[in-house]
Amino acid sequence: MTGLSYNDALVTFSLRISVAPSPTLRAGPSFISSIKMNPVKLFCTIIVCIVITGCASTRPENLSKTGRNEEIVLNERISTVSYRGMHVRCEEGALPGVYAATSEDADGVYYFGKERAIWMTNEVIQPKPRLFVGGIYVPKNKANAPRFFHIFEKEIHTTDNIDSFVQQRIVQSAVMPSGGNTNAGVGVNVAGNVIAGALIGALIDNAVGQIDMYPPIEDNDVKRKIYAGIRPADTAQ
Questions:
Q1: What percent of the chain has pLDDT over 70?
Q2: Which of 14, 60, 83, 178 is the most buried (most CB within 10 A)?
């Protein structure tokens, strides 16, 4: 849990690109090293990313409060694996727990987990599991696949082993009150040590607090577990 160095800022920026809707912006194995050595390339990438990711994200305060008294209850962690860019292995998942229907837009409902319930890895830029505040987005049209999402932030929270982290959460939940601020920890200073770093910092500052969507979940077993876990909130306690 630290402020971002220039290198950390590059990784954070690259993680946003790794889930961008355009394959041309997804970070491949040589992405970080190439932009470190080429400020012009970095500047151009930033400008393009502003255009694309700016349209792909939204802010929680711009969503409507949902009237659905529902929760998704996951009894085990779930995750989906995909290969993006230059065949880079990416995994996103949700930890066991309760995800409450909190907000919605015209197309679906946002179910938020408690604390940092969403995690991801990217074998090139984030091999160690990184934890986020977020949840599961369920489209109103069942023909469309659900998606994991997280709230973009500048703090970096990681764990060495996701299964050990799950067990730690189970122990903590048994001895501590439930609940917590789902927006806790969002926002610390970004320090750029070059002009390119300042540009990354400006982009990240603008994005803090936005909801970033991961690609639609294609794994049928994961989708089944999500839909099977939806139930009225008053019976999910």
A1: 59
A2: 14
DSSP string over 60-129:
GGGSEEP---EEEEESS-EEEEEEETTTEEEEEEE-SEEEEEEEE-SSEEEEEESSS-EEEEETTTEEEE
**What is the distance between the alpha carbons of residues 151 and 181, in angstroms, rounded to a whole number?**
13
Distance CA 121, CA 91 (A): 5
DSSP state, residue 23: G
Tokens of 78: 């779930």
| Residue matched to tokens 């292995």 | 89
Contact partners, residue 89, CB within 8 Å, separation at least 6: 81, 83, 121, 122, 123
* Cα radius of gyration rounded to whole Å, the chain: 18
Q: Give yes or no for residue 84 having a pLDDT over 70.
A: yes
One-letter amino acid for residue 88 of the chain: V
Neighbours of 117 (CB within 10 A): 27
| pTM: predicted TM-score of the whole model, two decimal places | 0.70
Highest mean pLDDT, choosing among 37-46, 207-216, 221-230: 221-230
Per-residue pLDDT at 185 exceeds 90? no
CA separation for the pair 105, 59 (Å, rounded): 11
User: Nearest-5° angle of CA 228, CA 90, CA 104?
Assistant: 45
